[in-house]
Amino acid sequence: MKDYLVKDNWKIIEDQYHIEFNQISESIFSIGNGHMGQRANFEESFTGKTLQGNYIGGVYYPDKTRVGWWKNGYPEYFAKVLNACDWIGIRILLDQEEVDLHKAEIKKFYRELDMKRGVLTRKAEFITPKGRHLSIESQRFCSMADDEIGAIEYKVTSRNYNGGLALVSYLDFDVKNSDANYDEKFWEEDQQVASDEAMYVIAKTRKTNFQCAASMDHSLTINGGKSDHYFDYGNGEKYVEVFISGEIVTDGEWVYHKFVNISSSRNHNAESLLPDALTKSKAARSAGFELLLESHVDAWSKIWNTADIVIKDDVAAQQGIRFNIFQLYQTYTGKDSRLNIGPKGFTGEKYGGSTYWDTEAYCLPFYLSTTDASVARNLLIYRHNQLDRAIENAEKLGFSDGAALYPMVTMNGEECHNEWEITFEEIHRNGAIAYAIYDYIKYTGDQDYLVSHGVEVLVAIARFWSQRVNFSEAKQKYVMLGVTGPNEYENNVNNNWYTNYIATWCMDYAAESLAYIKKSHSADYSRIISLINFNESELEKWSDITAKMYFPVDKNKGIYLQQDGFLDKDIISVTDLPQSERPIHQKWSWDRILRSCFIKQADVLQGLYFFEDKFDLEDIRRNYEYYEPLTVHESSLSPCVHSILATKLNMKDKAYEMYLQTSRLDLDDYNNDTEDGCHITSMAGTWLAIVRGFAGMSVENDTLSFSPKLPKQWTEVSFKTNFRGQMIELVMSKDGNHLNNLSDSSIKVILNNKEFVVEPIGVTI
Amino acid sequence: MKDYLVKDNWKIIEDQYHIEFNQISESIFSIGNGHMGQRANFEESFTGKTLQGNYIGGVYYPDKTRVGWWKNGYPEYFAKVLNACDWIGIRILLDQEEVDLHKAEIKKFYRELDMKRGVLTRKAEFITPKGRHLSIESQRFCSMADDEIGAIEYKVTSRNYNGGLALVSYLDFDVKNSDANYDEKFWEEDQQVASDEAMYVIAKTRKTNFQCAASMDHSLTINGGKSDHYFDYGNGEKYVEVFISGEIVTDGEWVYHKFVNISSSRNHNAESLLPDALTKSKAARSAGFELLLESHVDAWSKIWNTADIVIKDDVAAQQGIRFNIFQLYQTYTGKDSRLNIGPKGFTGEKYGGSTYWDTEAYCLPFYLSTTDASVARNLLIYRHNQLDRAIENAEKLGFSDGAALYPMVTMNGEECHNEWEITFEEIHRNGAIAYAIYDYIKYTGDQDYLVSHGVEVLVAIARFWSQRVNFSEAKQKYVMLGVTGPNEYENNVNNNWYTNYIATWCMDYAAESLAYIKKSHSADYSRIISLINFNESELEKWSDITAKMYFPVDKNKGIYLQQDGFLDKDIISVTDLPQSERPIHQKWSWDRILRSCFIKQADVLQGLYFFEDKFDLEDIRRNYEYYEPLTVHESSLSPCVHSILATKLNMKDKAYEMYLQTSRLDLDDYNNDTEDGCHITSMAGTWLAIVRGFAGMSVENDTLSFSPKLPKQWTEVSFKTNFRGQMIELVMSKDGNHLNNLSDSSIKVILNNKEFVVEPIGVTI
Largest CB tally within 10 Å, which of A297, A653, B9, B388? Predict the structure, then answer.
C-alpha cells in the first residue's frame, strides 16, 4: 500500500519526484483511447527504472509458448499485445550533455493526469550534472475524438543555460516486449522516411503481418516567435528522427509540438495506410495542438456526461471511482467489435492484452449502463465472431458436434493459456459468456440479438456442457469431473457447485431461447437449426442432464459445497491466518494452497451473485457467512461480488470494507503490482459494487429497479444510467433518494420495491 | 514396434544399414560402465540424424528451469547429466574428401553389441561420392575393469583407393545438450594441450564447477607394420586433435588405437586430476587394446556369472532379458553411493539422468539379488546422504520439525521437477524410499542398517506423512488431500488408496523400527533420538493417524478405490478404446485423460504388489480384475507389476502377455521413443517379472522362498540369486524345478511352501 499521490476529485497528481515509484506512476498515469494507449514514460531519455509501453489495440504477436512439460492440447502460442512504436520520444541535447532526469538534480517535479480532460501533464525543473538549470513541461493525449491521433506539447525553458540546444524527436518501432518469451523482437522493418516532406515508419509484425504506420508532423516556436534553428533528418532500422538545433538563452523557451498518427492494416487497406497516415498527421499539425485538445476534451466530456459517478465529501473515494471509469474508457470504447478489454488495458504488457472472462462477468454491466447499448453488444459480437474458433478449441480437446469451449485467454479466438488446470478445466468461462447474453438482453430488451447472434453461441455452449458431464452410476446423477472453478486455489476438482450450476443454467437458457425463437421467429428458427445442424433430440439430452445434475450440498450447514470433498479440509478462518503468511499465493507452496480451505475469490458466492433471484436471502446469508471468512480475496475480482452480496444482506460495514479493497487498488498500489499495469477489468467491479451493490440497480420484468443502501461513510452518491434509450439519474443521499429522468418521456422505475413513474422532470421520493 | 535387429542369445545385431533407425540404434547399442557411457554414435563425421551423447555419471548441470507460469516452491533448476567430452571422434580425410556414411553408398553395414563381452563393433563397406571404395571396422568399450578407461580399435581398409589418408582423432568438450533449456553451453574452457607428449582437455561445468579431464594416447599400424606417416597437433576451444597423415593403397589397412581416460573432480583432487589422467591413458596404450579388452571381458564375466538369466529355446526372450540386465549394469554398478540410476542411464539425455522413485520401487530388488548386498546398500545410502536436502525440500513446502519429502527427480538431493501435480503431489515416492529400506533388510537380514542409517530416514518420512494428513471433521478420519498417485493420469486427487496405505505403513514401520532399536540397541536409541530430536509423543500421533486413516473402498465391488470419487467416472474397459486413440497420452488432451477411468500404471495394484502378504488372494483377484481392464500401461513400469500379480493369481497367459510388454520394449522400440534413450529403470521390472513373478521368489521369515510357475511358452529358465552370502540357482523347467546351492554350506529354502535344506551339491526336487 502506497500513499504518494495527491487526492483530488478529478486529477491524479504526483507532486514530488518519486523515482522509487516511477514504474507504478507509469502505469497509473497511462493514457489511451481504445485504439491505442501508452504508459506514462518520459518523452526525453531516462536511464532510471522504466517499462516502456506503447500499444495498439488488436495488434498482437503469437509469442511461442513457454512451458516446462508439454501437454496435449496446449496452445502453440501466447498472443501478446505488442509494445509498438515509441512515438513520444523527444531527446534534449545540450552542449556536450543530454538531459536525463535520472542523472539530474530535481528541483521540482509535477505529474498530473486530468481525468476530466484525458490529459497527461508533466513539469520538471532540474539541474544537470554540468549545472544547467532547466525546466520542461509536457502535455500529451491520445485523442478520443480521432483515435489514431496523439499529440504532445513539449516546452523547454532555460533557467541559467545559454548555449546550444537540440531536440531529437523520433518515431521508433525498434522496440521489444519485456515479456518476450525468447527475447525476440516482434517487429520487422518495412519502410522509414525522414525528410522535410514526410516522417514516418511502417513496420510489420512478424508472423501476424499487421502493418502499422506511425507518421508525424511537428512545429517549433522559440521564445514566442521565430528564431534561428536547423532541421536535420536521420533514420535507422524501424526508426526516424528529426534533429532540431539552435540556441537557448536564460529564460528562453522552446515550445515543440508533435503530432502523430498511429494506424494499422486492421483499419486501413495496404494502399491507403501510408497516405491516410501522412494526410492525418499533417492535418493535425494544421489544426494545431489547442484545437485537437479541444475536440479531445469534448469527446471525454460526452463520456463523463453519462458515465460519471459523483461521490460527495470523500475525495479519495471520488478520485478512486473516477480513475476506474476513466481507465475503462481509455481501454475500451466499444467502437470495434474485434477489440476487447485486456486485464491491463494499455497500461502494461502483463496478461498479453488478451480477453478473459472478466469482460463478461464484470465489465459488461458497466458498459451496458454507462453508454449506448451498441457498445455492450459489440462485446457480445466479439465472442460471436470467435465462435468457430471456440468450436475448434473444443474439438482439440475431444468434443464434437458443434460444442464450443471459449478460450480462457485469447486475442483472436484461439486459446493462449497453457496451464492445464486453467486452460482445460476453468471452463466456467463458457458460462459467463452465455450469462452475458442473458444479462445484455435482460437490460436492453434486445431479444433480436438472441435471434440474430446469441442463440448460436448459447447452443454451442450448451452442447459443450452436455458432453462435458458424465452420468455417475454411483450417484445416479450427472457429474462434472475435473474442473477448476472461479476459485483458482482449487484445481481439478469434481462437481464444483458454481460450474455445475451455471452449466445447468446454460442448457436451460439455450433450450428456452430456442423455444422462444421457434415460437416467435419461426423462419429464423428454420434458418438457425439448419445453420447449426441442430437436432431437437439434443433438447431431451439437455433436459435429462439438467433434471439429474448433481450439486454438492451440506444439509446440516445449509450450504452449497464448493466442490466434492470440501468439508474434508481443515476449516480455518482467514482471521486465524497470520498476516505474515499473506498473501498466500506469495508465501505458500501451491500444494499447501490447494489443500487449504482458503478461497481466492468468490466461487459459490459468484453463483449466488449471478443468480440471486433464484435463491432466498437466508440461503445467500448462510453461504456468505460460511464462505466469506474462508476467502482471502487474492483476486482483484473477489471483493466486489462480496460487497454486492453484503449490501443485499444488509451487512453494510462488510459491504463498505469489501468496496474499499478494490476502489483504490491501483492508486494505492494495494497489491504491490501496479508497476506491471493497472487492474483494468477489476475496475468494473468497483463500479458494480456501487451501482449493483449500494444502489441495488437491477432490471425486473423490463423495469429498472433500485434498492439504495448508502454506506454510512458517505453523504451523497449519484450516477446516471442509460436504460433502453432513456437516461435516469439516481442521487442517493443521507437525506433520501432522488431520481432524475433526464430523457424526454416518462419512465417506470422501481425504487425499494415500489413502482414509480418518473416524469422527465426530476421528482423526489 | 520395429523388428530390424537380429535375434541372438548374446548379441544385439543390426546387419543392414537402417539410416531411418539410426538414433534408435544409437540408444540400443550404447555402452557404459557405471562411471561413464555413451551412445553408439559413429567415430567418423556423420551428417545424418544423430544424437551425440557421452556422459559422466554424477557430472550434472543445473539448467535454469523452464516453466510457463511459476508456482511457489518450484525448483530453480533442473539438474541434467551433461553431454560430456566427445572422446570417440576419428575423422577420415581422403584427398579432397571427408568420409561421411550419410553421403556414401553403403555396400555392407554391420553393428553388434556383444553383451557377454560388453563390446560395440561396427563394420561398414562403402563408396564415397568421389568413388573411393573403403571399409571401416571399429570396436570399442568402456572398461568395466577400470571405469575411467575407454578404448577404440579403428581400422580403415582401402578397396580401390590409392591416395592420401588422414585420421583426425580428437577430444572435444565443446559440446551441447540437445535438451538445454536456453541453448546454453554447459562447459567452460579450462586447458587443452595437444603435443607428442600429451593430449588432453580439461573442462569445467558452469555453475557446478565439476572439473573433468579427458586425456588420450594412441597408436597406428599401417599395413601390419610401420609405414610413413606424419603427426600434427591442433587445438581449439575445449578441443584437441591429432592429425595423422599418410598414404593408403588398395587393400592397404590402417589400424588405429585410441586410449582415453575420462575422470573428474568427483573422484580426484584438483592437483592429481591431470597427472592421474595422463598416467592412465599412457598406461592404457602400453597395455594395449587386447589386454585392456581382456580385463574388461573378465569383469563382465564376473557380473554375468551371478546376474544372468538363461531362457532356453526362446532367443527373443533370452536376448531381451540379457539386454535388460546388461543395460542395468552398464548404468549402475554400485561402487559409488553418490550415483544412482537415471531412467535413461547413459543412453540419452531425457529425464536428465536423475534419480526417480524407480530406483527403490523397481531396481533395488535386482541389485539385491544379482550381486553383493553392498550395492543395494549403496542405493539406500544415496538417499540417506540426501536426507538433509529432503528435509529442506519439505520445509520449502511448509512442513517442519524434521519432516522430509524426498524429491521426485534429483541429482544431488534437491528437487528438479516442476509440475506442481508431480513435484508437490506425487509424494508416494517417500513411501517407496521407506519401503526400500524394509525390502533391503528383509532380503539381507542387515538389521544394523536400520540402526546406523535407516531409522533416521524412516522417522523423517513418517513425520512428513503425519503432517501431510489432516483430520476430516466430516469423515471423522484422517484424510490425505491433493495428491497424485503412481497413476499419473490422475492429478490432485483426495485419498489415493495407495498413498494413504503406504503412508500408514511408513508410520507403523518407523514406529516398529524405533521400538526395535530401543529394545535391542538402547545406546543407539539414545544417540538417535537426540540426533533427530525425537519426542516419543510423536509415536502417539502416528498411531492415532494410522488407527484412524481413511481408505476409500467400495464394499459392493469388494475393491479398494483408487481415490475418492473414482466410481463417479464413466467406467469403460480399455478393450473398448479404439486402437486409433492409443496411446491416450499422445492422442487425448490432458483433461480428457484426467476425467477418464484409464489408468497409466499400477496404482491400487502397486500397493497390493508391495504388501501382498497383507491381503488375501481373493482380495487381490477382485482388485486385479477390476483395475487391470482399465489400465493402459502407458508407463513402462506398469506391466511388470501386473505380470507378477497375474502369476500369483495363476492367470498365466495374462502374466506372460504383461511380461512381453516390457521385455523387449527398447529392442523392438515398442513405444516409439527409444531414440531418446533406453528405458533403463523399467528393465528391472522385466527382471522382477521373472524372478519375483514366474519364480515367485520372496523371503519368508529370513528364508528364501520360491513358487515357480513357468510360462507354458518356455521350456526352461534358470537364474542365480545371492542370498545372504550364499549363491542359489533355480532351474525351472517343464520337467520340474531344480535348486543348486553354489555356495559351500547348506541352506534352507522354501519351494512351493515346503521347506528344504539344500546341500552345496545341487538336489533335484
Answer: A297
